[in-house]
Specification:
Layout: H1 4-9, E1 21-24, H2 33-42, E2 53-59, E3 65-72, E4 77-87, H3 90-106, E5 111-120, H4 123-131, E6 138-148, E7 151-161, H5 162-165, H6 167-170, H7 180-187, H8 193-205, E8 210-214, E9 219-223, E10 226-227, E11 231-235, E12 240-245, H9 250-258, E13 269-274, H10 276-281, H11 283-298
Parallel strand pairs: 4-5, 5-6
Antiparallel strand pairs: 1-6, 2-3, 3-4, 6-7, 8-9, 9-10, 11-12, 12-13
Helix pairs in contact: 8-11
Amino acid sequence: METADNRLISSSAPAPKFVESKVLSLAEADISEAEIEDWISNNTGVLGLGELDVKRQRRQEAGGRLDMLLEDTDHDKRYEVELMRGSLDPSHLVRAIEYWDLERRLYPAYDHCAIIVEEDITARFLNVIQLFSGSVPIIAMQLTCFRVEGKLTLNIIRVLDSRRLRDDDQSTQTETGLDRIYWENKVGREILRIADESIEIIKAAGRVPRSLRYNKGFIGLTENGQPNHFIVFSPKKSFVWIKADLASPEDWQVKLEGAGLESKPRASKVKFKVTLAQYDENKDLIRGILQQSVKDEES
């Protein structure tokens, strides 16, 4: 039986038929903000942040209505989402940051990020959002409505993610007074074996004395007593995220995928998740990544 793929590559196949679409404003399409909330609630993957649990229309102590609260339970992350038809205005941007600030102070155990989903975000506001990149993690997403063959469809594009701009700042944040006991109490002693064995690999591979540095949100590295977090460990009770800077991460990314390890491609980095069992099964691969990261750092 001829498949659709075979028909596409066949030299005798007809040219693809494209369907015309028309961009409509949400007002023209008569789509309300409540309908957009329902759509995202039923399809959280459209935000490009994975499948998230939804908590919505929460009234905060200071008053006001947070449009949506989304939670990534695997990584202890929460996203404070503000929606708006039409163009982004200053009051809406301020409100989104206020809600983010209230939530992070009420629930400091989570990593919080503000999200604005707007129909129109001008270059002016993108510049303003970038000004917050050193202190407020915020994602700007643009929502567009299309009419295709008489039906409406919505599309969301991430136009700015200040977390990427903040990456170096995040990796050098430290908190005084934190030590190994803090992490043993938080995630347990056994899972920390991954960081313990990894630092021995790192020290053996490098020319510079290095050790683990215990911070509130992650475990990084010191170099001659000073922080240099080119490799970062983010332990949870049953697994650890490992992030390593690499000059050429593409080949290592392919190897991680081949080993069946969950990973997140990032520019000039690899980030992957391992349980204790996965760490023991893939020690050669992980050793290679750590050694290459040290080599790239010292070159």
